[in-house]
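Q: I have 520 residues here and want to know how they pack in 3D. Can you give me a structure?
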Amino acid sequence: MPYDSPTAPASATAAPPLISGLSSNRENNPGTASAPAAYRGPRDWRRRYASLLRLTDLLVLIWVVYGTQIAWFGFGNAQVSIREDSRITDFSYWLFSAGLIAVWMWTLSLADTRDHRIIGAGAEEYARIARSSLSLFGVIAILAFLARVDVARGFLLISLPVGVGMLLFSRWLWRQWLVAKRSVGEYSARVLLVGSEASVTHLARELKRMPGSGYRVVGACVPSGRVAGSVTGTKIPIMGSVDAVAQAMAATGADTVAVTSTDELPPDKVKQISWGLEAGRQHLVLAPSIVDVAGPRVQTRPVAGVPLMHVETPKFSRGQLFLKRTVDIVASTIGVVFLSPVLLFLALSVRLSSQGPIFFRQTRVGLRGREFTMLKFRTMVVNAEDMLEALAKQQRDSGNEVLFKMKNDPRVTPVGRVMRKFSLDELPQLFNVIGGSMSLVGPRPPLPSEVAKYADHVHRRFLVKPGITGLWQVSGRSSLSWEESVRLDLSYVENWTLVGDLVIAARTGRAALAPGESAW
């Protein structure tokens, strides 16, 4: 049972010898094993947050639906007409709008758009809101046709996109607040890790690296059964063996058990752990060793009573490639037209600030390993390439043996430093996109000298065109190590979706405004 009060349950004081070991461990690691004084039960934050979302959803829909009605019909008593043979029955739009709001709220609840398992991270929360809203208006349109209800098309056509947009915006604002809370350990699931010490250590580090995901590790149980010390490289206490999960959950106030590996667990142990959890209040999570695989590629299928997880092989259909290319051409062409004054100003600034050409042309490796010439505004002195070898020797201890990066590169001109800070030097790559050698979103285009040092698996990044921006840029840019850059590039290649591209593009603007050197 999890904690429901600020003090520990009575069972914790009359526990077997294991619990005394837990007590001494808490003394060695204060503040990591015990539940916080203000902890009031695992479902409190979930209920509280869902209630806040429900309230703001209602306020948004009232504002949108009635606002659209007033904008379309004014404050008068406009009527919805229902035709029945030769009779026409009218009722007020004020009543129709109230019904629309009630049904819309009900639809959002049916789609579990406020479920704690999807809030705070990923695009599923937003996708459910969009899908459920589109489905609702589709049903309304069909019913209106069949029942011969004359509803103003403009009223519905405005309410749907504005309503969805405002719902998504309000959820985004709440997500920023939630991530801030989770960064200090609030509004998070309290997780007890169960598995081998190596797998527990790996997952603990990953969850600590991403506090915004909403999982706060409070303890671990390992097959060795030791109750002294902590998980390697962390302050997370080891609470005992895998047979002490129930006691460990009570001692730590955990509401979620995450099984990190099953190789060293007794047969049926995972099933026994699940039987010991309280339905609706405590949760079981299985963490497979496979990483960087997106949800659409993973399908769980029960076979002979065994839940088999099928991971589909990444593939790119002609339709996907055509869609991505179409978006690239349209968006980059519009970008060049609207940014043409900026491009002209930057070109003049480069020309007048230092001697040399306006554009810097460099050979990069793109789709299927083919080389192409990448364009960017020149941000360095003319002899920058001659200075590269000497500067590279100063970066041997940077942890990146393949990709050369320097935060305060002396070769960068004053104007170039400003352009790099806001990624303005990369704007000419829009012409690369129009020409077909690059995409708006994709892996970082490497130099031929970097490709020569690639391991075999890294060549998978050439299955798609390189991009002006990508996961590497919105996830750390120049601060990333080589291994992290490769992992992000391969994750993008193997899990590409158009929605993912849109999310990366949206995050790029925020990343570009953050101070930092260009990732190129």
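Q: Anything worth noting?
A: The chain has three domains: 10-38+188-289, 44-182, 318-513. The chain has 16 helices and 14 strands.
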